[in-house]
Structure formats: C-alpha cells, structure tokens
C-alpha cells in the first residue's frame, strides 16, 4: 500500500465499474471445509510495538499491519472461511494521538480503495460494524463505495469493526428492544437470546468459532462480547505485522484439535 493520499472516490460509478469488470472472476460461494471454523475473529494487536522494537515510527507498524490484513484476508477466503472479522479500531482508540488517528483513517480509506480488485477477484463481501459518527467523510465514502461494489459477491464476508465497542453495541441493542416494549410492539416475555441477538450489529452473522489475538495480550478488549461466548481462543506472542498465512494455519489447526462441548459433556 502506498503512503500517498488516495485520489478520492469522486470518480465514483465509472471507476467502480471498470474495477469490477477487470477483477471479477468465477470464484463462487464459500465451500466450508469439515472441522474448519465458519467464523474467525481477530484482535490485531502490536503494530506499535513492532515498530518501536525496530526504532521506527508507530505509523510504520500500522502500514505493515495493512500488509498482514491483505495476506490473511486472501488466505482465509481461499481456505473457505465463511466470515473473517477484524478489529480495526475500538471505540477506546480515540484516546491515541491525533496524528496517529488521522493516519489510521487514511490507511483504512486507502485499503478500501486499493483492495477492490482483490475483494472482487476473491468474491469477498466487505461490511462494516461500529459507530459511523466521528469517522472522516472520505473514509466513510470509500467504505460505502467498496461495500456497494462488492455487494453481489458470494464468497467470504469480511467484517471490519471500526470505531466499535462491545459494551456500546449491547447497550444500543437493549435500547432498541426497550423502545419496542415501550411502544407496545413487543411483549417483554417474548425477549430471548435470539431476539436480542437480532438487534446487534452482527445480526444475521454466525458467532465467531475462533478468536485470535496477537502480541500476547490475554484480554478481549471490548470486542464482540456477546458473540464470543463460546469461541475458542488462540493467542500468539507475535505482533500483527508478523502474523501471516502460516500463523493462521497454525491457529486453525489448534482449533480443529479441540473438542467443543458448549457447556455439555463429552459423549462416551
């Protein structure tokens, strides 16, 4: 990915149409592999530490992190993973220095523009979850245009969690349910887990089977708190810029070796 600002999305429909015509192939719907996770979620951590260890600016770590996003996304799609969710920016990350945040937004904007060929070629369907408020208009425009361009793809769903927080998502869902009850549209006794999950940003998506965290941190960091209730956890000491296809394969192999009982007992 280049470090120069993107030209913007002003070319709009004409540019998008030419990208689609050049990139779309016959790659079809996801074909799940036996024993593989349907949905992998990743907390991409350690960009700054990767850079600091090399006496580089933190933004260089973020730039290298985008390269990891590219190779992991493509590999997951080719493995037949149904959904990959990446924690791009938490609602707490706004506490970081303004210059770093501006660079992160620029990287996201560039990614959504420059990766259209890859997304179309691999049949990947990008979506975004998180709070749109506060995100730069140019970044939102690039996201929206790419999502629209790839809406007809039938391959892996790539869910980008941007300005996202699990607690905030649950609160928003509770408010939506409360409004329905207050309006007389919903009986409180009818509220169950399935109904509540339908109010979350991830409504219609499978819960993560495998949650990966890089850089060795042993915490969930307000990520998909409702959805990861029964996800298998896999943590590596490698930072996100060091994470690639071999590491993803290793995490999947570890997942396949585990027995998932969902609170039950092993069958004799």
Helix-strand layout with pairing:
Elements (H helix, E strand, L loop, with lengths): L11 H12 L15 E5 L3 H7 L4 H22 L3 E8 L7 H17 L1 H6 L3 E5 L7 H13 L7 E8 L1 H17 L10 H5 L12 E4 L18 E4 L9 H12 L12
Parallel strand pairs: 1-2, 1-5, 2-4, 3-4, 5-6
Offer a few descriptive terms.
268 residues; alpha/beta; Undecaprenyl pyrophosphate synthetase; 6-stranded parallel beta sheet; 9 helices; globular; disordered N terminus
Please sum up the structure shown:
The chain has 9 helices and 6 strands, in the order H-E-H-H-E-H-H-E-H-E-H-H-E-E-H.
- Helix fraction bin: 40-55%
User: Are there runs of 5+ residues with pLDDT below 50, and where?
Assistant: 1-26
Mean pLDDT: 89
Biggest beta-sheet profile: 6 strands, parallel
* Sheet with the most strands: spatial strand order: 3-4-2-1-5-6
CATH architecture: 3-Layer(aba) Sandwich
Write down the overall geometry. globular
Order of helices and strands: HEHHEHHEHEHHEEH
Classified by CATH, the class is Alpha Beta
Q: Could you tell me the CATH topology label.
A: Undecaprenyl pyrophosphate synthetase
Number of strands: 6
Domain unit count: 1
Q: Report, as a whole number of angstroms, the end-to-end distance.
A: 53 Å
**Count of helix runs:** 9
What Rg is obtained from the alpha carbons, in whole angstroms?
19 Å
Strand content: 5-15%
Q: What's the CATH H-level superfamily name?
A: Decaprenyl diphosphate synthase-like
Look at the helices and sheets and give the structural class: alpha/beta
């Amino acid at each position: 990915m280049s470090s120069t600002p993107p030209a913007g999305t002003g070319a709009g429909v004409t540019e998008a149409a030419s990208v689609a015509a050049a990139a779309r192939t016959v790659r079809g719907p996801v074909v799940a592999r036996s024993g593989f996770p349907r949905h992998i979620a990743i907390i991409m951590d350690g960009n700054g530490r990767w850079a600091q260890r090399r006496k580089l600016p933190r933004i260089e770590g973020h730039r290298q992190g985008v390269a990891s996003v590219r190779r992991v996304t493509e590999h997951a799609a080719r493995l037949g993973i149904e959904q990959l969710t990446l924690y791009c920016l938490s609602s707490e990350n706004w506490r970081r220095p303004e210059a770093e945040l501006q660079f992160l937004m620029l990287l996201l904007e560039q990614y959504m523009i420059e990766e259209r060929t890859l997304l179309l070629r691999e049949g990947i369907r990008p979506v975004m979850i998180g709070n749109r408020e506060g995100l730069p208009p140019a970044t939102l425009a690039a996201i929206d245009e790419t999502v629209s361009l790839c809406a007809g793809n039938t391959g892996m769903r790539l869910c980008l969690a941007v300005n996202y927080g699990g607690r905030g998502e649950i609160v928003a869902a509770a408010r939506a349910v409360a409004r329905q009850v207050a309006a007389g549209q919903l009986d409180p006794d009818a509220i169950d887990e399935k109904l509540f999950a339908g109010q979350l940003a991830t409504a219609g998506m499978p819960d993560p089977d495998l949650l990966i965290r890089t850089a060795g941190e042993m915490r969930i960091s307000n990520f998909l708190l409702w959805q990861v209730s029964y996800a298998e956890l896999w943590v590596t000491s490698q930072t996100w810029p060091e994470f690639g296809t071999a590491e993803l394969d290793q995490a999947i192999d570890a997942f396949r070796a585990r027995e998932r009982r969902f609170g039950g007992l092993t069958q004799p």
